Amino acid sequence: MGVVVLAGHLRTYPAPRHWPVAVKESAFTVRPMPGPHPFKECIPLGLILRDVLGKVKTISEAKRALAERKVLVDGKVRRDYRYPVGLMDILYLKPEEVYYRVMPDRVRKLCLMRISPDEATFKLLKIKGKHILKGRKVQLSFHDGKTLAFNVDDPFNIQLPYAPNDVLKISIADNQVLDHLPLDRGVFVAVTGGRNVGQYGTVVETPQTKSPDALSKVSIAGKETTVTLKYLFPIGKESPIISTSGEVA
């Protein structure tokens, strides 16, 4: 069944199941605008304010709050209630002075976990692509649509140690690389999709190929299982560098 669009809205039935909308209570819901996260991997900002966090009662109230510049995503004011919020995004509510990170969830696929102000100063970005640019530069593209360019001595003999499926810890204030988390044996990972979504474990063995559909062995709660490479998100070299438990909205 295709996605039905009407005047910027979306029929409730074909909306992603992890959205907090009641199919039988409303015919239409918010349609996310084109943005950093794919349609099936995001939640519109208006639904987060109304249905996830319960900060407003209606979408009209959500629009008013956004117009007053009270909500920031990844350090930037967002004023469109249709803005797509996705995995690892940092949400800041200015009136309450609270921060949330979007994390994978076993039941809802995505959830908002409350974090400290210190943890909200950085974001984890998974590398999706690596491209050579003119002027001896290499550009990395990330899971949330962001890109970063790096100068290298020889673009055809790239010394840049970052590879697809690795994760970079990036400062939100100035986009500086703070740490590099390669997807390798012994790395602590979050599972972002598949039957193990929302669980955490340690990589036991990685495939030789970097194909996103290749299988990797992961130890989850003391038991080994296989997880598709594209669903592994490194969050620490031996232990997580972000909160994996706490208050969840």
What topology does this entry show?
Blueprint: E1 5-6, E2 9-11, E3 28-30, E4 42-44, H1 45-52, H2 59-67, E5 71-73, E6 76-77, E7 84-86, E8 90-93, E9 98-105, E10 109-115, E11 122-133, E12 137-142, E13 147-151, E14 167-171, E15 177-181, E16 188-191, E17 200-205, E18 215-220, E19 223-228, E20 232-236
What does this structure look like?
By secondary structure, this protein is mostly beta strands. It folds into 3 domains: 5-117, RNA-binding S4 domain (Structural Genomics Hypothetical 15.5 Kd Protein In mrcA-pckA Intergenic Region, Chain A), CATH 3.10.290; 122-181, OB fold (Dihydrolipoamide Acetyltransferase, E2P) (Beta Barrel), CATH 2.40.50; 188-236, SH3 type barrels (Roll). It contains 2 helices and 20 strands. The protein has helices at residues 45-52, 59-67; strands spanning 5-6, 9-11, 28-30, 42-44, 71-73, 76-77, 84-86, 90-93, 98-105, 109-115, 122-133, 137-142, 147-151, 167-171, 177-181, 188-191, 200-205, 215-220, 223-228, 232-236. Strands 6-5-8-9-10 form a 5-stranded antiparallel sheet, with no helix packed on it. A hairpin with a 2-residue loop joins strand 18 (215-220) and strand 19. It is globular, with a radius of gyration of 19 Å. Mean pLDDT is 89; it is low at 1-7.
CATH architecture of the largest domain: Roll
Question: What is the string of helix and strand elements?
Answer: EEEEHHEEEEEEEEEEEEEEEE
Major sheet characteristics: 5 strands, antiparallel
CATH class of the largest domain: Alpha Beta
**How many H/I helical runs?**
2
CATH topology of the largest domain: Structural Genomics Hypothetical 15.5 Kd Protein In mrcA-pckA Intergenic Region, Chain A
Query: How many E strands?
Result: 20
**Adjacency order of strands in the biggest sheet:** 6-5-8-9-10
Strand content: 35-45%
Please state the CA-atom Rg, rounded to the nearest Å: 19 Å
Query: Can you tell me the number of structural domains?
Result: 3
**How much helix is in the residues?**
under 10%
Mean pLDDT: 89
CATH superfamily descriptor of the largest domain: RNA-binding S4 domain
What structural class do helix, strand and pairing data support?
A: mainly beta
Distance between the termini: 30 Å
Q: What's the shape? A: globular
- Low-confidence region ranges: 1-7
